[in-house]
Amino acid sequence: MAAALSGSQRAILWYPPAYDIRVETVPIPQIIDPDDAIVKIKLAGLCGSDLHIYRGHEDIDKPFICGHELIGEVVALGSSFHPNATGRPELYSTLQVGDKIVSPFTVTCGECHFCRVGSTSRCIHSSLFGTPSLPGGQEQYARIPKAGGTLYNLNALSSAPLDVSKVAESSLLLLADILPTGVFAALQVLQHPKLSPMLTGLPYPWSSNIPSGYDCAGMSSAVRDDDRNITIAVVGLGPVGVCATVSLLDMLASLQKERGITYRVVAIDPNESRRTKMQAVHTAIDAKDKLSGEVVVTSIEEGKRIVAEWTDNAGCNAVLEVVGNNSALTLSYELVCPFGVISSVGVHQEPPLPFTGREMYAKNVSFDFGRCPVRAMFPIALEILLRRQDVFGTVGETTSLIDKIVGLDQAAETYEMFDKGKCGKVLFDPWL
Ligand SMILES: NC(=O)c1ccc[n+]([C@@H]2O[C@H](COP(=O)([O-])OP(=O)(O)OC[C@H]3O[C@@H](n4cnc5c(N)ncnc54)[C@H](O)[C@@H]3O)[C@@H](O)[C@H]2O)c1
Ligand SMILES: [Zn+2]
Ligand SMILES: [Zn+2]
């Protein structure tokens, strides 16, 4: 079962202190724990999260193999994988050498409390690929710890209703991180109790999860139709921001049909080429789905002006922060209305948050931060991936999320271009 691989492979390494990317020959990883799998990488993504390390913002002082987004094929399995592996996640008894897999960007055991309740990004065994403690996916072979809990077997997902055999292979890479993260950013606001008065037509606190015994029967709601017009800002339109906006529009369209809400979305980025991509994606979606809501893609200053005009200076009900710096958090706070919610999926660094307690108090604002629980988001992300192959399934077109697929040799220049916002999502094919 554990077909031992020996020899060397090529990999992208980051060197401290910053901006130093090299392609080197390193040993092929080996199984070191019975729960491990070794995967031959088909494609690996370059992500905004790699940029925080690239820029030297994460206080790392030794070189390591980069990347945390990967799809590939199982080439070796540890001894935990056998047909009688009962009482453990299903893949320990079903995964086979030769199966095609996608790996979430963090290790997920599938067996701890956090995994069981869906908070999978905070698994007690969590470890992030592409860090000094766990080599990443930008190489030819990768070791996947706790693989029976971590991996998705794509071969098991090749029949209706969620049939991945018909989608572009490159689009499956987006399930490793950025599409689930976009779904997470959107769900964190749409499922938030602060949005429920708009979604249910009932005022707070009757709008969600009142314990029984406090019946609101007989209460008349003062919520008017114009109160149910939800305004949402997306701050940051890199690849994750585009995924967040596409996911948000998908969910808002269905809420509009089911609950009768109306909505307006302002999507903001200072970088013109990022706005051009978002605009092209939205135009394509709108042409096909005839969206009922208003969507504007714009710059920071114009975004502030539009929100003030749309909401009579009150601000947005919710903001999705998809950047990962303090200027974006400050903007998000400026844009949000009292009793609003900010869903921050940007990866933030050491500096303190740019708000005072008084500012938090003054708006009754809710914040949600943190790492996407990819496994929990995976089924919804997969549905959106299948529905939106026009955006996710093509490469290099004006409406494509994925800009290009390059070999490892182009790593240094690709990191530099992505860092400067001169390209969108790039995938590495380590066999080119
Ligand atoms: N929470 C998670 O699990 C998770 C997962 C994946 C990525 N991320 C994070 O999401 C963020 C975005 O990732 P990406 O790949 O799209 O990165 P990216 O660097 O390509 O995109 C960031 C975008 O933000 C824009 N921007 C910068 N300052 C801004 C501001 N003040 N207001 C509005 N826009 C601003 C930039 O022009 C750029 O287009 C990163 O911080 C990344 O680490 C988090
Ligand atoms: Zn990523
Ligand atoms: Zn776990």
Describe the SSE topology.
Blueprint: E1 8-15, E2 20-27, E3 37-46, H1 48-54, E4 64-65, E5 69-77, H2 91-94, E6 100-103, H3 113-116, E7 141-144, H4 147-150, E8 152-153, H5 169-172, H6 178-190, H7 196-200, E9 229-235, H8 239-259, E10 262-268, H9 272-289, E11 294-298, H10 300-311, E12 316-321, H11 326-335, E13 336-344, H12 357-363, E14 366-369, H13 374-387, H14 389-392, E15 402-406, H15 411-419, E16 425-428
Parallel strand pairs: 9-10, 9-12, 10-11, 12-13, 13-14, 15-16
Antiparallel strand pairs: 1-2, 1-4, 3-5, 3-7, 3-16, 5-6, 6-8
Bound molecules: nicotinamide-adenine-dinucleotide and zinc ion (ZN) (2 copies).
One zinc ion binds next to loops.
Summarize the structure.
With 432 residues, the protein is of the alpha/beta class. The chain is 31% helix and 22% strand. It has two domains: 8-177 and 373-428, Medium-chain alcohol dehydrogenases, catalytic domain (Quinone Oxidoreductase, Chain A, domain 1, Alpha-Beta Complex), CATH 3.90.180; 181-209 and 220-369, Rossmann fold (3-Layer(aba) Sandwich).
